[in-house]
């Protein structure tokens, strides 16, 4: 009996200790949660005070509600020109040809979500094979930051070729068609700017509505841009274009730009703002790397051996069975199903200074906790290496509808 009393006493003691520990853990979790929420509120208060402390409230209004969700519809246009200009002084001949890729205007729908001037966005294309877009942005009273990445392919092309002899055009072609394999284009755009008159002028008022411009004002802007892109034409089916480019099938470009521009916000009435910004830039770093390819077919004029004497292609030795490296292309394009390609060389060139431009236009209207905006941006980037030149023009127009909470 005594033993049972001792055991019951031990169980009661352990149960009481367990309940006390559970109560302590619960209080500890509540304290931890309260502490975390308190820290978050302090962070939000710090960001709010920072946003309001650096602007003149007579010119820029910082809304009470800091969170925003925005729905966006965007139309994106891209133009890529790929040029080659070859001179043959000994024959007094010149061959110029250009591929112009103008995919259809891509429509996309997406969202932006964030706190004050910092947020993340994603858009999904409504057009098949038009690519994917991803961006991050952050804005403050005196700064702005944008990151944009895109990847797309296209087989729509306009081909323009001119053959000169003694500086006179002997033959010219201008054809719009589809190439045999799509060209892949990737680009990453990182832009940052500093606003000299940040107390009175806000770039964000027209482009992401984190603040509201109350009076008209302008400012000088200093900006820096990092841009990198790749242009890939190396698919075996496009071998003819690669061979006509001195075997250049893929190009990678890295470019850093700096510039001084000007932006102006025009406020005709409360809640409505029109922004225009222009910033010419000069590249201070311009690195171009080209990758060269070879193929087992070549556009030879003189066919020395019968086409049926070449036998099988050996991918290890890169030769045909009869020892030849190249098999002539026929005019009907029957070679396309058998063409093989491989990388043979690469070359890096640090190019000369390039002039680029960044143009933006934004319109926004705010009422209650809602706002609507229309924004547009135009960028031009170019790079050149020897006889090859690539110009990429990237622009968009966007409609946005959002709310604050």
Secondary-structure blueprint:
Layout: H1 2-53, E1 60-61, E2 67-88, E3 93-101, E4 106-115, E5 118-125, E6 132-139, E7 143-165, E8 168-195, H2 204-207, E9 212-213, E10 217-232, H3 239-243, E11 248-266, E12 272-295, E13 297-298, E14 313-314, E15 319-320, E16 327-328, E17 341-350, E18 355-367, E19 370-385, E20 388-404
Parallel strand pairs: 13-16
Antiparallel strand pairs: 1-9, 2-3, 2-4, 2-20, 3-7, 4-5, 5-6, 6-7, 7-8, 8-10, 10-11, 11-12, 12-17, 12-18, 14-15, 18-19, 19-20
Largest sheet: 14 strands, antiparallel
Overall mean pLDDT: 83
Q: Structural class, please?
A: alpha+beta
What share of the residues lie within helices?
Answer: 10-25%
Can you walk me through this structure?
By secondary structure, the protein is of the alpha+beta class. The protein has three helices and 20 strands. The strands form four sheets. Strands 2, 3, 4, 5, 6, 7, 8, 10, 11, 12, 17, 18, 19 and 20 form a 14-stranded antiparallel beta sheet that branches. Strands 1-9 form a two-stranded antiparallel ribbon. Strands 13-16 form a two-stranded parallel ribbon. A hairpin with a 2-residue loop joins strand 7 and strand 8. The longest helix is centred in the first third of the chain and has 52 residues, at 2-53. Mean pLDDT is 83; it is low at 1-18.
């Amino acid at each position: 009996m005594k033993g049972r009393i001792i055991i019951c006493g031990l169980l009661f003691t352990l149960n009481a200790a367990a309940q006390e520990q559970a109560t302590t853990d619960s209080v500890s979790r509540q304290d931890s949660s309260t502490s975390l929420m308190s820290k978050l509120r302090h962070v939000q208060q710090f960001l709010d005070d920072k946003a309001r402390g650096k602007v003149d409230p007579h010119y820029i209004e910082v809304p009470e509600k800091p969170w925003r969700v925005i729905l966006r519809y965007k139309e994106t246009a891209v133009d890529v020109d790929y040029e080659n200009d070859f001179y043959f002084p000994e024959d007094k001949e010149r061959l110029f040809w250009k591929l112009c890729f103008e995919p259809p205007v891509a429509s996309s729908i997406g969202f932006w979500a964030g706190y004050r001037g910092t947020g993340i966005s994603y858009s999904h294309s409504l057009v098949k094979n038009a690519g994917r877009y991803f961006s991050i942005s952050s804005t403050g009273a005196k700064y702005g930051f944008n990151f944009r990445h895109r990847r797309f392919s296209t087989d729509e092309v306009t081909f323009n070729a001119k053959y000169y002899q003694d500086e006179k055009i002997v033959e010219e072609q201008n054809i719009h068609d589809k190439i045999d394999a799509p060209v892949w284009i990737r680009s990453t755009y990182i832009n940052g700017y500093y606003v000299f008159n940040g107390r009175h002028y806000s770039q964000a008022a027209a482009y992401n509505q984190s603040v509201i411009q109350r009076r008209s004002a302008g400012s000088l802007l200093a900006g820096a841009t990092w841009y990198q892109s790749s242009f890939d034409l190396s698919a075996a089916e496009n071998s003819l274009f690669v061979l006509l480019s001195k075997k250049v099938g893929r190009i990678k470009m890295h470019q850093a730009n700096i510039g001084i521009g000007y932006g102006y916000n025009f406020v005709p009435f409360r809640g409505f703002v029109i922004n225009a910004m222009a910033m010419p830039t000069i590249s201070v770093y311009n690195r171009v790397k080209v990758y060269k390819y070879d193929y087992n077919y070549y556009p030879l004029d003189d066919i020395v051996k019968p086409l049926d004497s070449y036998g099988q292609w050996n991918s290890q030795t890169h030769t045909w069975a009869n020892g030849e490296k190249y098999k002539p292309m026929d005019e009907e394009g029957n070679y396309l199903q058998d063409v093989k390609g491989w990388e043979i060389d690469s070359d890096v060139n640090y190019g000369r200074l390039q002039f680029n431009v960044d143009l933006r236009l934004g319109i926004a209207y705010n009422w209650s906790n809602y706002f609507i905006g229309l924004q547009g941006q135009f960028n031009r980037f170019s790079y050149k290496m020897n006889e090859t030149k690539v110009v990429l023009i990237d622009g968009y127009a966007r409609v946005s509808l959002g709310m604050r909470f």
